[in-house]
Amino acid sequence: MQNQLLTHINSPENLRNLKVDDLPQLAQELREFIINIVATKEGHLGASLGVVELTIALHYVFNTPEDLLIWDVGHQAYGHKILTGRKHIFDTNRQLGGISGFPKRDESIYDAFGVGHSSTSISAALGMAIASKLKGENKQHIAVIGDASIASGMAFEGLNHAGVSDANLLVILNDNAIGIDPSVGALKQYLTNVKKGTNKRNNIIEALNIDYSGPIDGHDIDKIISELERLKAVKGPKLLHIITTKGKGLKQAEENQVKYHAPGKFNSKTGELHIKQSSEFTKYQDVFGRTIVELAKKNKNIVGITPAMPTGSSLKYMMEEIPDRAFDVGIAEQHAVTLAAGMTTQGLVPFCNIYSTFLQRAYDQVIHDVALQKLPVIFCLDRAGLVGEDGATHHGVFDLAYLRCIPDLIIFAPRNEVELRNIMYTAQLGLNQPIAIRYPRGRGNIKNWKQAFEKITIGEGVTLKKGARLAILSIGSIAKNVTEAITDLEVSHYDMRFVKPLDENLLHKIFKNYSTIITAEDGAVKGGFGSVILEFASENNYNNTIKTLGVPDNFIEHGKIDELQQLVGLDANSLHKFIEELL
Predict the structure, then answer these.
(1) In the annotation, is 333 catalytic?
(2) 522: closest CA among 343, 386, 430?
């Protein structure tokens, strides 16, 4: 089908000039447009395909951008972007210098709130609704949230407040029974029963004093429009429950919703995934996933916990092999951390696997429920450092800075897969305090990583190369770039491994032997590993020249990881030039 209608839609005003009878054709054209672009440029597919009719209906019924529309997380907002003036640049989505994969306030007036992490939409929309009321404005405020995100604590907090307000808030529950992985928990079961018509209990939403309607078919555009028109006249907080199919319109995406959440490149006509060139190297997440299974088979006290990321973290392997000891707790990072703390008090050994950028959401729990009590929870922080096309909301660059100030917390960054295995092995042998292990997205560089376990001495760094001119101290997987950068340079390279506790004996030797010291990390340079070394020098009255390299003090945009490393000067070539100039 030619984009006969979509060609002429460059804003919601154009959309509202169409007849309602034209909208199903527009929906089909919009789906095809999304499929054709994502097939070649990659991105999040299934979520946006599932809300095409809803997206069109929202912009058709409401006077956006005057009426404020907020998408929770934003995986599903591609159709929204295309209809709000970004169709001509949509092929730059998630690319360096292109548009963001998520709604972003400084990108468009139609992006009412910047998102990327889940469960923020209700609170934000309620805040806007209260502001409109105080200013005497007559606006609509709409939050679109999925069934996985609405189970999060923050979403409940927003609903709890909304129920005692008279704010003009409409929450649309996009219920497709899946986030990135299938939704879990009692609320998911409740919604399933509502859809089946078998639920005998009181309505949870109405119990919170929120007007509930639905469930309705989220692919029946006429029904959605009529219901939205009706709800415009309903005062106070209300919730519309719609049922959709993630991946709607592409057979494979409907049938394999996990894989087609962000499938990579595929054939836009058949939906078949392009076969990726096989790699001899393994993803760090799979090293974690395979290793925890190996350890858990020998240590009956080991349990695995993830907040809604069993596939992304590869805890799925443990869920398949030892299901009674692996827990997906849903989008609930705070709960995941304190659940692990509770388990630890009873002698279990929890590996709590959370993306670096998501652990930010459970910061108080790490301090108050774990570190303060010296509970030996093992935090495995996946996606540490620059993560690529997801951009600023997902770069795990703040973990070293925000964790290192917490007393009694060990912080370790493996430079390769073997080190990750060995620190996991070491941690489960028995520590008397918590440990955070942070590792990157993507593949390592060791083929035969599955080696015999070796215990790591806590707080001990290692020498990777000896040279006479200056010393480079690295932390984590950035060691690979440093190693490449100095192959022909007469310099020393040390992998400190631990940000906390520091290997002070090694540092004293380094500071006494080298007048110039460089630190390299793939985290925020302000307050991170380099700052640790500067503090050590100050405390011990060293006056060596110290240069700190890392992610600069601004939010880094989206792009391929190697592009972003070049952007911030952490790729091997940039490091080589920097060191050469110092020499």
Answers:
(1) yes
(2) 386
